[in-house]
């Protein structure tokens, strides 16, 4: 497992206090907001954004969804405490949540007008100063069948095949030069069958740890401009280099995956330690009111 650590300036810690109600003394509900942004603007399907990638491309959002797994709050002494996600029949089940920022406007699918921009769960009352979670799905959840599973694993748009498994993240954009630039994060070099099970050479699940997180004052931002900074979003598909679509579909040899993977703290199709991730940031709630 690869770990990506983001050390930020010190803020007041997250404090979960006991209620006077005996029924809630053993746990407290926590809600954590996620906000993708570009520059000084929130990411929205109905807007255009300029100056992206190596060519300063203008982009519009087509899709922006991702799976998050096994969230934990961190205490001052470094202890990890499970955030027990609250099942809701649509976005959260077990240790997994699906975050969806498509609102059916602009180029986004009109069927996806219902968004989920937060995770909700319970923890014991206490003093918490950080957050960690897995960006993506573990191997035991990756090869379910979206056609028969219950939410949030029933999103067929987030699923490739039995063999390929789920798209851990689906970030699609229209750019100045391309109808669609894809970033579909998922496992690579998967083999197996329904009878024997599936294994993947590279699971591409990354652990995100964010220090000094204050729930009352802060949210988790996704810096989309930083994610796309090292990629040419407009150039034609490089068929001669082994590319088949514009962007990254996480298949072996995809020439545009490397730069995107490094932004999330991974080396593409490699066991090497990746650089510190730069996609997820702790930001103030007042940054994008």
Which stretches are low in confidence, meaning pLDDT under 50 for 5 or more residues running? Answer: 1-13, 15-24
User: Total helix count?
Assistant: 3
For the report, how would you describe the main beta sheet? 12 strands, mixed
Give me the count of strands. 22
Q: Mean pLDDT, nearest integer?
A: 88
Structural class: mainly beta
Radius of gyration from the CA trace? 19 Å
DSSP strand (E) fraction? 35-45%
Estimate the helix proportion, in percent: under 10%
What number of structural domains do the residues give? Answer: 1
Described by the principal axes of the CA atoms, the overall outline is: globular
Helix and strand element order:
EEEEEEEEEEEEHEEEEEEEEHEHE
Task: Explain how this protein is built.
The chain is globular. Helices cover 6% and strands 42% of the residues. The chain has one domain. The chain is built from 3 helices and 22 strands. Strands 1, 2, 5, 6, 7, 9, 10, 12, 15, 16, 19 and 21 form a 12-stranded mixed sheet that branches. Strands 3, 4, 8, 11, 20 and 22 form a 6-stranded mixed sheet that branches. A two-stranded antiparallel sheet has the order 13-14. The protein has 289 residues and is mainly β.
Structure in a nutshell:
By secondary structure, the chain is mainly beta.
Which helices and strands, and how do they pair?
Layout: E1 2-6, E2 14-16, E3 28-38, E4 41-42, E5 48-52, E6 57-75, E7 80-82, E8 84-85, E9 92-93, E10 96-100, E11 118-123, E12 126-135, H1 139-142, E13 159-161, E14 165-166, E15 169-174, E16 181-185, E17 188-193, E18 197-202, E19 206-211, E20 218-223, H2 224-228, E21 247-248, H3 257-263, E22 280-284
Parallel strand pairs: 1-19, 3-20, 16-21
Antiparallel strand pairs: 2-12, 3-4, 3-11, 5-6, 6-7, 6-10, 6-12, 6-15, 8-11, 9-10, 12-19, 13-14, 15-16, 17-18, 20-22
């Amino acid at each position: 497992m690869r770990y990506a650590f983001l050390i930020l300036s010190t803020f007041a810690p997250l404090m979960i206090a006991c209620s006077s109600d005996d029924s809630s003394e053993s746990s407290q509900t926590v809600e954590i907001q996620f906000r993708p942004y570009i520059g000084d603007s929130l990411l929205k399907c109905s807007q255009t954004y300029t100056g992206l990638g190596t060519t300063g491309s203008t982009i519009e959002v087509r899709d922006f969804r991702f799976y998050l797994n096994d969230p934990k709050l961190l205490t001052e002494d470094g202890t990890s405490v499970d955030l027990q996600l609250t099942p809701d029949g649509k976005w959260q089940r077990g240790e997994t949540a699906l975050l969806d920022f498509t609102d059916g406007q602009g180029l986004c699918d009109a069927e996806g007008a219902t968004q989920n921009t937060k995770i909700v769960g319970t923890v014991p009352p206490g003093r918490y100063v950080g957050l960690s979670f897995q960006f993506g799905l573990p191997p035991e959840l990756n090869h379910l069948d979206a056609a028969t599973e219950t939410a949030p694993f029933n999103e067929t748009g987030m699923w490739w095949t039995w063999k390929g498994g789920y798209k851990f993240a689906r970030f699609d954009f229209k750019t100045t030069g391309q109808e669609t630039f894809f970033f579909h994060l998922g496992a690579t070099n998967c083999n197996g069958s329904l009878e024997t099970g599936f294994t993947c050479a590279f699971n591409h699940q990354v652990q995100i740890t964010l220090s000094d997180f204050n729930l009352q004052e802060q949210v988790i931002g996704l810096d989309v401009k930083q994610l796309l900074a090292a990629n040419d979003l407009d150039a034609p598909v490089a068929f001669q280099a082994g590319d088949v679509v514009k962007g990254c579909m996480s298949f072996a040899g995809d020439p545009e995956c490397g730069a995107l993977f490094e932004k999330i703290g991974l080396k593409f199709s490699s066991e090497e330690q990746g650089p510190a991730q730069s996609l997820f940031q702790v930001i103030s709630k007042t940054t994008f009111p």
